[in-house]
């Protein structure tokens, strides 16, 4: 009999709480929801500790640790994007990166970049030599192999400058 009365009071309280919750503004709803979830979690943990059934919770936490490490790494990578969005930057709809200045290399700089020595005008350097030097260097500085975009673009531009000069 007491259990039935408690159940009826619980249902009436839930209905009243839901009506009150729907009347609240959005900001207040969020605050009430977070506080309710935190209170329910604390109540659950205390109940599990008192009844001696906390052991399964630690097993679940132990199983989730590897997944949480991956999620933490992903969160750290996405944090700058979230902060930029939160601060209101880049809201113009222009998602294109800023234009970069082209790499204007002289013939000497291009030869130094590719590690070539000799006189370009006398025929000591050929297109094959330029391509071989480019292939050797790009394997080391390519972004897919641990290099960076700047070095790869500089090596590519040096090759283009030298080949254009040799074809003339």
TrEMBL record:
Domain J: 109-167
Membrane-spanning segments: 6-21, 33-50, 56-79
Keyword Membrane included in the entry's annotation: yes
InterPro entries xrefs: DnaJ_domain, J_dom_sf
Endpoints of the signal sequence: none
SUPFAM superfamilies on file: Chaperone J-domain
Superkingdom, taxonomy of origin: Bacteria
Keywords: Chaperone, Membrane, Transmembrane, Transmembrane helix
Matching Gene3D superfamilies: DnaJ domain
UniProt-recorded name of the protein: Molecular chaperone DnaJ
Biological source species: Cellvibrio polysaccharolyticus
């Amino acid at each position: 009999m007491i259990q039935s009365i408690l159940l009826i009071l619980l249902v009436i309280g839930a209905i009243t709480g839901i009506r009150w919750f729907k009347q609240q503004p959005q900001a207040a709803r969020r605050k009430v929801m977070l506080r309710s979830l935190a209170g329910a979690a604390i109540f659950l943990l205390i109940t599990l500790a008192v009844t001696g059934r906390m052991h399964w919770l630690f097993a679940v936490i132990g199983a989730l640790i590897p997944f949480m490490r991956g999620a933490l790494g992903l969160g750290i990578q996405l944090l700058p994007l979230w902060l930029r969005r939160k601060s209101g930057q880049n809201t113009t709809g222009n998602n294109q990166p800023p234009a970069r200045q082209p790499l204007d290399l002289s013939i000497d700089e291009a030869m130094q970049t590719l590690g070539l020595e000799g006189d370009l005008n006398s025929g000591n350097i050929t297109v094959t030599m330029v391509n071989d030097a480019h292939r050797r260097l790009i394997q080391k500085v390519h972004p897919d192999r641990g290099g960076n975009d700047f070095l790869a673009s500089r090596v590519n531009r040096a090759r283009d400058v030298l080949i254009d000069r040799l074809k003339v």
